[in-house]
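Revision sheet: structure tokens.
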Amino acid sequence: MGTLKPIRPSAAEPVELQARAMDNLRYIRRTMERAGSFTAVPGVGGIFMGATAMAAAWIASSRPSATWWFSVWFAEAILALLIGSVAAACKSADARIPLFSAPGRKFMTGFVPALAAGALITLVLFRAGQFSLMPGVWLLLYGASVVSGGAASVRIIPLMGACFMAAGAAALFTPAGWRNALLAGGFGGIHILFGVIISVKYGG
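Predicted:
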């Protein structure tokens, strides 16, 4: 009497197909993540950064001391960095996208170098007592950071960076007495304007 063999194939093949499908999905996900844009640039955070810059300009103008002026804007830079970081983290969490995904890392790779250069040049200018050059340098190099980082983000971000660079270039050729107005218009006005656009068009 012959032995009976199962008509259905063994379960090994479906399991192997499922594993291959999961590998393909993971590959597609990684590819899409690398090709994607960093969309966690915060619109609302930009508005708050602009508002604190306006407040800093008012506070810095309350005393004629250059050291007081520098201290106020140094504190504003730290505050703005905290606001931007927290707002970007919240926007990423709402979108369920890791902040340091591949596009996020590309953004930071472009954003940080010019910002670090600005910090170093600020130290040199402070030691030399060249406070009048600081607004132009800050706006110019911050704009360069945004343009470079914005290459990994949505199209409006490099445009915002270009506006900061234009404001910085103009500030380098204006009288020293205009520095608070220039910083208020740059870090205040540009942040608020583009913050509103980003918030409306891209959410958050």
